[in-house]
Amino acid sequence: MKPQEYILIEEEFGAHNYKPLDVVLTRGEGIWVWDVEGKRYLDCLSAYSAVNQGHCNQRIMDAMVEQAKKLTLTSRAFRNDQLGPLYKELCELTRSHKVLPMNSGAEAVETAIKAVRKWGYEIKGVPEDKAEIIVCRNNFHGRTISIISFSTDPTSTTHFGPFTPGFKVIEFGDADALERAITDNTVAFLVEPIQGEAGVIIPPDGYLRDVRRICDDKGIVLIFDEIQTGLGRTGKLLAEEHEGVEADLTLIGKALSGGFYPVSAVLSNTEVLGVLKPGEHGSTFGGNPLACAVARTALKVLVEDGLVENAAAVGEYFMEGLRRIDNPKIKEVRGRGLLIGVEFHNDAGGARQYCEKLKEAGLLCKETHETIIRFAPPLVITREDIDWALERITPILSE
Ligand SMILES: *Cc1c(COP(=O)(O)O)cnc(C)c1O
């Protein structure tokens, strides 16, 4: 079939909840993907950071195939021999004490919300149904009804109400605002260490340390949503390490499977996950042996292949190259590791036009919020690959 035929049937039979670039992909390897006509592209999005280990990573694939032949799903009604080892390896790697496995990122967020509410009632002593969770403006935590209930993006919320109560929105990057917003009924502060979907928004230096201190002082749970920033993307295993802090709950997903399979997890450093008793929360697929085998290998690849260190070094090199682009329409180039945003001024005509041109030149990028292009290639990318990319990006972004 021709690309246009794939696009037509997709448009006819699929819901239109995405507006993808018109490229129909059929194969991937490392940082590269190929379309149905054999044209090769550098993937600069990595499925929103889910394929940090590169497309079709051989070791993860082998682990997946091997496990698929042995045992895929038991449900949590029974134990399986992949779950315990994943827990232990994840805890050792992230210095956590407890793990709760789910599938999608949104489910990890939902799990955290349930756990901190219960913690609030049973440990902190908040009156029933009064628990409050503080979140930030321009957050992105997923698409379920509870999660969009505290989204500030009208596209995410319009005509989806009624919404779940119990959330309070403050400015991102403003630690004083957090201090002011906390009441006796506050149970948690949920925040992304870097706001990815909002356009790679990096908080002021010291922000993560400040919110850690405030949460400690006020006795509330600090939740970092590291579903996008975690697992090497920013040049550290977790973005919280940039400021040497540890959240009480850390949410990971996306690259936890290297893009093979939906796997997410809530990591806990405190008694919070301890409040969940048998039957109170669960998921048919959460913690299944196939997911665990994939996740165990995805983590090994990150560590043993030095992908975290590579993200730091190559990310810095990439950002320097992008900063050399001379175009007054570019407002800012910012990022950490290989999570980089190039923001254009509002009158530059939007970022989409650049993404279309980059696609023609063999780079797949996605605009976020009209004026920002996010560059987030797989962490297996080399300096030579970046040179190849900059040769193509520089003339296009200079126009
Ligand atoms: C992608 C993302 C989610 C949601 O993950 P899904 O797997 O799409 O449900 C939540 N939080 C952040 C920060 C994300 O980037």
Automatic annotation (TrEMBL):
This is Ornithine aminotransferase. Keywords: Amino-acid biosynthesis, Aminotransferase, Cytoplasm, Proline biosynthesis, Pyridoxal phosphate, Transferase. The keyword Cytoplasm applies. Catalyzes the interconversion of ornithine to glutamate semialdehyde. One of its GO terms (cellular component) is cytoplasm. GO terms for molecular function: identical protein binding; ornithine aminotransferase activity; pyridoxal phosphate binding. HAMAP family: Ornith_aminotrans_3. Its EC number is 2.6.1.13. It catalyses: a 2-oxocarboxylate + L-ornithine = L-glutamate 5-semialdehyde + an L-alpha-amino acid. CDD domains: OAT_like. The lineage of its organism: Bacteria, Pseudomonadati, Thermodesulfobacteriota, Desulfovibrionia, Desulfovibrionales. The gene is rocD.
